[in-house]
Amino acid sequence: MALDPANIGKEFPPTSTYLVGREKVREFARAVSETASISNDLNAARAAGYSDLVAPVTFPIVITLEMMGEQVTSPEVGVDWSRVVHGDQRFAFTKPVVAGMELKSTTVIEDIKSMAGNDIITLRGDLREVGGDLVCQVWTSLVVRGEAA
Amino acid sequence: MSLNHEVGTQLPEIAIHVTRADLIRYAGASGDLNIIHWNDRTATAVGLPGVIAHGMFTMGQAINVVTRYFGSAANVVDYQCRFTRPVVVPDDDEGALVTFGGKIAALNDDGTVRVDITATFEGKTVLAKAIALVKVA
Q1: CA gap A14, A134 in Å, rounded
Q2: Alpha helix locations (H) across chain B?
Q3: 3-state secondary structure of B20
Q4: Which residues are CB-neighbours of A33 under 8 A, at least 6 positions away?
Q5: Contacts of A100 (CB under 8 A, 6+ apart)
Q6: High-pLDDT (> 90) share of chain B, %
Q7: How far apart are CA B85 and CA A103, in angstroms?
């Protein structure tokens, strides 16, 4: 069943906050082989001018992917998660994500289109520090394979 | 170390052997527990050749070409890619060989350097339009 383009522009406000943990940053850095000292060594991060470990570039996906999954599989949007393939991904930073930051995310459905029997839904997550500053924007395009595919 | 920011500069390649253990570590660290990334039975049931790497695992590894050259994740202000082909990870000790490369493609007026990243598995590209913008000024 095709997704309804009427949901373009639909916004999901933050429901909770995400506290970036120092050990989570370290764990994620190890999982993506990010060996930079500012992501692994607290003293090095502080010497470089950061309050704590700097998260690897793709870390925001930890915050957004599961949340977006829950949002698009809601009955009003209707994505069948078992048919989802990750199509495109982008991160744009206003500043680096640093351990200790408390972030909240607003998701917007930027686009829904059909191509070759598949639906493509593009979501943007705006990650802001509690208090207001935009930290990172996260775009995720999901390809929802059609019934025939 | 002084870095060469000339357009056309090739960044040092990184080659990794991706094993099932790497995927399980990534699943745990990222919270992406999708079964196709660790269970052959489920992966083949949905038409895949076998267990495949998380696209985000590959994207996360590919940016190391940039962060190791420029020294830090903190200077990457933009990073994007398209996932074009799965990396099939066999259940053995050697894993799947994936090779990452990068080339300085442009020096932008806003003080960023554009790096075009490549990711290759079995001779074919697995990430398209993989582009990072790095703040150097």
Answers
A1: 14
A2: 20-30, 40-45, 55-62, 64-70
A3: helix
A4: B16, B61, B64
A5: A19, A20, A22, A51, A52
A6: 90
A7: 32
Beta bridge partners of B131: B80, B116
Range 59-98 of A in CB contact (< 8 A) with B:
61-62, 65-66, 82, 85-93, 96
Question: What pLDDT is attached to residue A52?
Answer: 98
Residue B39 token pair: 């269970």
The residue of chain A nearest to residue B35, with distances taken between CA atoms, is A82
Structural contact between residues B35 and B121, judged by C-beta atoms closer than 8 angstroms = no
Task: Inspect the interface and report whether the beta carbons of B80 and A90 lie closer than 8 Å.
Answer: yes
Query: Rg (Cα) of chain B, in Å, rounded?
Result: 16
Asked if A32 lies within 8 A of B60 by C-beta distance, the reply is yes
CA distance B130 to B79: 7
Q: State chain A's maximal CA–CA distance in angstroms.
A: 56
Q: Name the token pair of B64.
A: 């190391």
For the full predicted model, state whether its pTM sits above 0.90.
yes
Single-letter residue type at A96:
P
Pairwise CA distance, residues A107 & A120, whole Å: 16
The ipTM, to two decimals, is 0.95
Which of B34, B57, B72 to substitute to test the interface with A, most A CBs within 10 Å? B72
